[in-house]
From TrEMBL:
Reaction catalysis annotation: a 2'-deoxyadenosine in DNA + S-adenosyl-L-methionine = an N(6)-methyl-2'-deoxyadenosine in DNA + S-adenosyl-L-homocysteine + H(+)
SUPFAM superfamilies xref list: S-adenosyl-L-methionine-dependent methyltransferases
Biological process according to GO: methylation
Keywords assigned by UniProt, alphabetized: Methyltransferase, S-adenosyl-L-methionine, Transferase
Keyword Secreted assigned: no
E.C. number: 2.1.1.72
Name of the protein: site-specific DNA-methyltransferase (adenine-specific)
Top enzyme category: transferase
Protein species of origin: Franconibacter daqui
InterPro entries, sorted: DNA_methylase_N6_adenine_CS, MeTrfase_D12, SAM-dependent_MTases_sf
Lineage: Bacteria, Pseudomonadati, Pseudomonadota, Gammaproteobacteria, Enterobacterales
Length: 443
């Protein structure tokens, strides 16, 4: 199997899909004889999924969406995909689908004509949709002169009257419709999540992951992340010229077709004879609880001040299906809901906080070494001032910390051209022009 055939379940910043065979090569040279390989900070799940062909794997990440995706990948060959495809194709026959659609039909029709308006140079309506808050806050953002806001309220109240404004039915629609997806796309994503709730245990995470992968494909943002909704205006307030490529293209994507194409991709995923599992857990807790069992830990923590939870909060809310409180910010003295509609309770990783990161890395080295477990750490060694995004902890500090707990710390550039051996006395590293390194920590 080559790395190009490996499934990439979501667009993910810093996913390690280009380095999979290199990771395996290092693991093979250092892993203990028995126990699962741990993919710590598993993110999009690509590493754990790839490794699961060769070993039993345990993935660990603090985010629920990451657990859902890894768990789906591990089960992808065991679910009845024909039935899931049929259920998705026949969603419109479902009673709940029909009830919700009846409530939001006027909104979807208005939105449809607004999207079609882009090609007729009639763009004000779609710009208003993109710039408005979603249904979840439409009652508190009253604008009597806006047909669209009136429609939002009408549809929201209809959902409310029928008890359909609750997480098991319409989380994506109410929180992210209009902002990150079209209302109709968000509704279909909710319906796929609804199917997941009603499926048997084996298929639950699989169907949920299909909704997450589909959300990642259809989301209307630059770069397919969820940190920054589309801005349809230039700085001077004028409407941008390229609204078709900026907004129309994504919002015309057919979520059902995309979901089915994802099922086919998941079905072709690696077939493993090993039993692997996915955990949602803090790294420290996972190492304290299971560290001794792991044959090796591959760790890929965040290295910059960007919290992953900000980039993927929509996937997290879709996975948890709760009613998150939305963050606010103060602009010109007025408190407003955040434009990105971020959840207030969002994981703030110590690895992304300058004052906490050194301790977090130290705890990682300390925990794995005290379990006598070898560690491979991924790191992208750009430093502050070199024109790239600053790293929270420098490479030199990282090597120093690792060397406190491991007698041998070897720095391996990913291309594998130069291998520099490091020990406690020798902490120099020629790092410019190296895109990615591994720290191989052994005894
Ligand atoms: C660089 S990404 C991992 C990318 C992953 N290797 C891949 O290929 O997709 C870092 C991950 O660390 C997770 N994370 C951050 N802090 C954590 C913590 N305290 N415990 C567990 N996971 C954490 C984030 O949720 C994020 O998914």
């Amino acid at each position: 199997m080559t790395t190009t055939e490996i499934i990439k379940p979501i667009y993910y910043l810093g996913a390690k899909n280009s380095f999979l065979s290199e990771i395996r090569t290092i693991i093979d040279t250092i892993k203990k004889e028995s126990g699962p390989v741990c993919d710590l900070f598993s993110g999009s799940g690509v590493v754990g999924n790839y490794l699961s062909q060769f070993y039993p794997v345990t993935t660990v990440d603090i985010q629920e969406y990451s657990k859902v995706i890894s768990s789906a990948l591990f089960k992808s060959n065991k679910v009845n995909t024909d039935k899931i495809i049929r259920d998705i194709e026949e969603l419109h026959l479902n009673e709940v689908y029909q009830e919700i659609y009846e409530c939001i039909r006027p909104l979807c029709e208005y939105e449809r004509s607004s999207i079609d308006g882009i090609s007729k140079d009639n763009v004000n309506a779609i710009v208003e949709i993109v710039e408005s808050y979603p249904l979840a806050s439409c009652l508190s953002t009253s604008n009597k002169n806006s047909i669209f806001n009136e429609l939002q309220k009408e549809c929201y109240l209809r959902l409310n009257e029928k008890g359909l404004d609750s997480p098991q039915f319409t989380t994506t629609l109410r929180y992210f419709g209009g902002v990150y997806f079209s209302y109709y796309q968000a509704f279909i994503l909710d319906m796929i999540l609804y199917l997941s709730d009603r499926s048997n245990d084996e298929s639950k995470d699989f169907i949920k992951a299909i909704a997450l992968s589909s959300a990642s494909s259809v989301v209307n943002t630059v770069g397919k992340q969820f940190a920054q909704p589309i801005r349809p205006r230039n700085k001077d307030g004028s409407i941008k010229k390229n609204l078709n490529s900026l907004i129309g293209r994504d919002r015309n994507l057919d979520t059902i077709k995309i979901a089915i194409s994802w099922i086919h991709k998941y079905k072709l995923n690696v077939n493993s004879t090993y039993t692997s599992n996915a955990l949602r857990m803090d790294y420290q807790e996972a190492l304290d609880t299971y560290g001794k069992n792991f044959s090796v830990v591959y760790a890929d923590p965040p290295y910059t001040r960007d919290h992953y939870s900000r980039f993927y909060h929509v996937l997290e809310t879709m996975s948890l299906r709760d009613e998150p409180v939305i963050t606010t910010s103060t602009r010109h003295g007025i408190k407003e809901l955040s434009r990105g509609f971020y959840r207030e309770e969002r994981h703030q990783s110590p690895f992304c906080i300058r004052s906490l990161a050194p301790k977090a890395f130290e705890n990682l080295f300390k925990s794995t070494s005290s379990c006598n477990t070898p560690l491979v750490l991924s790191y992208s060694p750009h430093e502050e001032g070199d024109g790239t995004h600053p790293r929270v902890v420098s490479t030199k500090n990282l090597i120093e910390l690792a060397s406190t707990y491991y007698p041998s710390v070897e720095v391996i550039p990913v291309e594998g051209i130069t291998h520099n051996k490091f020990n406690k006395k020798d902490l120099m590293l020629e790092e410019r022009n190296i895109a990615e390194i591994f720290l191989k920590c052994t005894f």
